[in-house]
Amino acid sequence: MQVIETLAEGLKRELKVVIPAKDMEARMNERLEDAKGKVRINGFRPGKVPFAHLKKMYGKSIMAELVNEIVREKPTEILSERGEKSATQPEIAMTEDEAEADKILNATADFEFTLAYEVIPAIELKDVSGITVTREVVDIDEAEVNERILKIAESARTYETKKGKAANGDRVTIDYLGKVDGEAFDGGKDEDAELVLGSNRFIPGFEEQLIGLKAGDEKVITVTFPADYPAANLAGKEATFDITVKDVAAAAEVEINDELATKLGLESADKLKEVVRGQIESQYGSMTRQKVKRQILDQLDEMYQFDTPGRLVDAEFENIWRQINTDLQQAGKTFADEDTTEEEARGEYRKLAERRVRLGLVLSEIGEKAGVQVSDDEMQRSLFQQLRQFPGQEKEIIDYFQKTPGAAASLRAPLFEEKVIDQLLTEVKVTDKTVSKEELMADDEEEGKADAKKASPKKKAAKAEAAEGEEAAAPKKKAPAKKKAADDSAE
């Protein structure tokens, strides 16, 4: 077998592989000899079929099998011998000329094919002991824990139907139909909707106009959607809602006790407090972790500059770009609405894709050299987390990960990355700093203020860079008047 390098330009490689016809014929003959004693052909005793007849009947099909085996197995072997790693699956090209292909199958012409691929650049790891990060830590006080428990208790409180007018804090059950310019709009209709007055779950001005109504009352209220409402067709628009009140219920007293804990599936109020404290610690811990990770990645980005495989960058860019366009479409907006152009946005996201690929390669090299492994148990837990997000679709999801090439890698990659970050945290200099929760969230809040002035694509790019490899899409909302309620469960 001859391997001839025909292109070596940057990270691009192209190889011409030639296997002489005589070698192909020798392999075919070995297969035919092995099959000689096994095949059954009418008119011949087992093992007595003339070789020429056997070759005439089965030669081409065996040669086709050999060709398929070679193009499936040889590229990996060739790259290994060259000490190269391909960034993506190499492209394999063979002759498309039928006459030439027939000669190959008849072992009268050399079998030739080409491999085209991009190599993963050699990365010389640098000393990371000079990397310094500040780990912001929040001390959680009892007041915050009690405040969270109170919210949970309020969300779990019971209501009893009452006679008379609805007051702030009461729960009303209503049917409503929203209209703009006299026409009903999508998502603006609901029946038996339960709303606690004063919860601010609906757009401003909606709940206040229900105070004083009683069961059986009908009323048309007028509100104005906020200018920044996610549904572009409703943002800033005046709307009317036809309201029918079906029930008014008063809230029972909130009591934080063992009975409440039992209702939430816990054995005692003390256990409830413990669980809530753990939730808060986990939330702040995630924010701390993300900030630490961002600092590490930013410094690694400054330390490593090299050409990245174009195909990997293209694939990463397409993933990002597809999400951006989906978000804009769902929001009913264009790049012009976001004070940018498609060309500018493409350039910005291309840079982000290059950064992600480069850092991904660096982390992969660091992890490989450190012997970082993702265990089967960790993969299994990750899969279970996926299953929990899509109840009722467990079989389809399992089938997808079992049968789709590369799907398992999508589970492994984030696990591997986090373990590499853990490894780096043992090597870099980490300084703990106690901060308030406001300080911990300050960066996000500042970014939020800037978002009002910056284009949405730019905002998402900034967030994506801050949370490398994680989704940073803006919240997706339909047109209904409801705002998303905070999840204060104690699960």
From TrEMBL:
<protein>
    <recommendedName>
        <fullName>Trigger factor</fullName>
        <ecNumber>5.2.1.8</ecNumber>
    </recommendedName>
</protein>
<dbReference type="InterPro" id="IPR046357">
    <property type="entry name" value="PPIase_dom_sf"/>
</dbReference>
<keyword id="KW-0131">Cell cycle</keyword>
<keyword id="KW-0413">Isomerase</keyword>
<dbReference type="InterPro" id="IPR027304">
    <property type="entry name" value="Trigger_fact/SurA_dom_sf"/>
</dbReference>
<dbReference type="InterPro" id="IPR036611">
    <property type="entry name" value="Trigger_fac_ribosome-bd_sf"/>
</dbReference>
<dbReference type="InterPro" id="IPR008880">
    <property type="entry name" value="Trigger_fac_C"/>
</dbReference>
<dbReference type="InterPro" id="IPR037041">
    <property type="entry name" value="Trigger_fac_C_sf"/>
</dbReference>
<keyword id="KW-0132">Cell division</keyword>
<dbReference type="InterPro" id="IPR008881">
    <property type="entry name" value="Trigger_fac_ribosome-bd_bac"/>
</dbReference>
<keyword id="KW-0963">Cytoplasm</keyword>
<dbReference type="InterPro" id="IPR005215">
    <property type="entry name" value="Trig_fac"/>
</dbReference>
<dbReference type="Pfam" id="PF00254">
    <property type="entry name" value="FKBP_C"/>
</dbReference>
<feature type="domain" description="PPIase FKBP-type">
    <location>
        <begin position="169"/>
        <end position="270"/>
    </location>
</feature>
<comment type="similarity">
    <text>Belongs to the FKBP-type PPIase family. Tig subfamily.</text>
</comment>
<dbReference type="InterPro" id="IPR001179">
    <property type="entry name" value="PPIase_FKBP_dom"/>
</dbReference>
<feature type="region of interest" description="Disordered">
    <location>
        <begin position="434"/>
        <end position="491"/>
    </location>
</feature>
<dbReference type="Pfam" id="PF05697">
    <property type="entry name" value="Trigger_N"/>
</dbReference>
<keyword id="KW-0697">Rotamase</keyword>
<keyword id="KW-0143">Chaperone</keyword>
<comment type="function">
    <text>Involved in protein export. Acts as a chaperone by maintaining the newly synthesized protein in an open conformation. Functions as a peptidyl-prolyl cis-trans isomerase.</text>
</comment>
<dbReference type="Pfam" id="PF05698">
    <property type="entry name" value="Trigger_C"/>
</dbReference>
